Every structure is written in C-alpha cells, then in structure tokens.
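Run: sequence + zinc ion -> complex structure.
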Amino acid sequence: MLKRIMREKCPCCGTINESNEKIFKRDFSPCRLIVPFVGYDVFSCSKCGLYYAGNIEESMPLDDYYELMSRYEGGNYHSISPDLIELYRHVVRLIEKTVPLEADIMDVGCAFGGLLNELKVAGYCNLYGVEPSQENCDYAMDYYGIQVYQGELGDDIPELRQKKFDIIILCGVLEHLMDIHASIQQCRTMLKQGGRIIIVVPDVSLFCEHKDLYQEFSIEHINYFDKKSLQYLMNLEGYVFERLERSHINIMGLAGNSISLWRKAESDCYLNYKQKEYTDDTNGGMSAYLEQCADFATRMRKRMYDYDTGKGYYVWGAGTNTAMLVQLNIISEKLIKGVIDSNLNYTGMEVYGNRVLSPDELRAEECLPIVIASQYAYSAIEKKIKNMGLKNHIINLFSEEMDDDK
Ligand SMILES: [Zn+2]
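>> structure
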C-alpha cells in the first residue's frame, strides 16, 4: 500500500520544503511497525524561522498507533511528576500576574486536569477544560471537582457554545499539531475582547541545556519553536506579544519550555499590530544543539567499538532511541540478536530484524551483552536486569554521558 507523505510546506508560513534548509533526518524505518511514521526531514524555514518535521512518511494511521499503544495501559497513569507540577506552577504565577481570580480560564487538551487543579489551589474558580479522553474528563471531575468537557478544540460542545474566556491555555499542544493555525484561530473565536492565550512549548533555545541524542525530534513532537517563530505565527493570527518566560526544568528527558502570553488584537485592525521582528536573544539554539548531539554520538560510537566482535548483543528498548542508535551507526542492525522491552504493547512485534521479547523470555536466550538503549529509564532498566539475576554484561550507553553532567 502506498503511504502518504505529509507536510510538503512549512506549517506556519507555507514556504515549500524545497526552499528551506534540511538540517536533520529521522529514520524510524527499522521500527516502522510500532510507530506512525517511517521518517521525516527536519527543516529550518527560510521565511518564518520555524523548525519543523516535513516530508513525513506515514507508516500507519495515527488512530491505529494510539490503539496499539493503548492495548496495555501503563500503571501509574494519573501521577504527575514533581517536575511537571513545577512547570504548572510557573504557568499559574504568570496567570496570577495577568488576571484576577474570577477570570474565566480554559485549558485546551488538559489531560486529567493537573494544571487546572493548580489554578484551583491558587484560588481561581471559573475553570474549564477540553480533553479527548472521557476517562481523563471523569478523573478531573471525580478527583479535582473540575468540569472538563470531552472533545477537541472546534467540536460543538453545547455547554460551551455561548462561553467566552479571559485566558485560554495551550500547554504541550502546539508542538504536536499537524495544523498549527486551526487551533490558534479557533481560540480567537472563544476569547473575550482583549482575552489572552498562554502557550507552553519546548523551547529550541533550551535544547542544549539537556544532553540527548536528537530526541527533541520525536514521534510526538513535530514543531520546534523559538521566540522568533512563535512571534511570527501569533502575529499572523492576530495576537500581540505581551510576555515570555522560560522554564529550565526538563520534562520526561526533554528540554525546558517557554511560557508566553499573547493578547487578542481587535479583528479589523490586528494586522497593524504586527510588531518588529525579534532579534533572537539566543545564540543559534538549534545549531548548537545539533553540534552537541553529533559530539555525543561520536563518543557513543567509540564506546561501542569494543563490542564489535561479531558475536552481537541484545538491545533493551524497542522504541525510537534504538532507531536513532541504528541510524547513527552506533549499534549495527546486523549485530542485534534480540530486542527486549518491558512494554507489553511491543511484545512479539518485528523491529530491527528481530521479534521483541519480554524481559522474562530473555532468560532462555544465549548470554550476550545487553545494550540499554534508553536515555530516560536507563538506571531503572539496569536495576531490573540485576534484580532478575541475569549475568549478561550490561552496556549502559547513555549513563556515562549523562552522569558526566552531575
Ligand atoms: Zn515558515
């Protein structure tokens, strides 16, 4: 079946990919059966400055992907990490500087209501959320007593038909969207006169503050904003810049976020509000990030030379970190003798030329070294291998590099 190629233009200003610089390529093809994309190119737009995933080749419809991932729901689903709570509190502080406690506030894509609850704790009382998952909506009501409506931005939700807001929050939303204009436009219609949007997105200028192997270019994140490209987008949609703050906290192994505030300009004259373009206050965040990742890759490759004995190794981790290690020739697909993953959604799937084994199945296999291919969970995995009493030599590829930072 012929698969679709998506995004042949910049999703912000429409400049065609051919006119933009290609700065990186992600290749997920060895694990295409467990991810929605075969790969994409990362572009730097020559006109608006946005970095984005373009020429995205689909491997399965997104709905199939989410179905695959939800067959076995993980445990601790409703817990919020201390890091995330700190980010939420930063957003709350910005809102406190901006609107009084009786303001009408909407959190779009609010998950199970963690940020709304922080607002409630701060004393805000007119809180609303929209969220696709009914289970999340129920949780927000049952545990936080906050009304969250099931649906997506743009859906006709009868209770919200006449409702207008002082603040609409898009936290962790824009970096995921194929169509970044539609939701910003939709928000405009839901805002009161002079209402504001708060946007929380990973910030390119902070990518370098955290060591990783190109994981900012992920399956989930396909738009990479800095202050300049965000300003371009928001001006285009009729919003005036008010404030931008940065949160340096790493969330789930990824970079910090910018938290920015934008006021809706009046409809008939908003284009006049177009402000002078930013001189970016960061030192070419993206190129520094690419350099840092390339350096990290070189050092990992050197560490793997010792294991290039022809006997091979297992890889622990079926996901996209492994795809990156293969793409960068840090590990070799022909030397992978087995892939292990604790995520039962993956068990039995074919990736990297092997069937994914559950940890227990590894006991019956030959005792070869295990490469831990996870940046986020490497210590937990190492602990698990030791607790299982396995005698395999462990190559913890990410740990040495990450521990350098401590
Ligand atoms: Zn553009």
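>> summary
The chain has ten helices and 18 strands. Residues 285-305 form the longest helix (21 residues).
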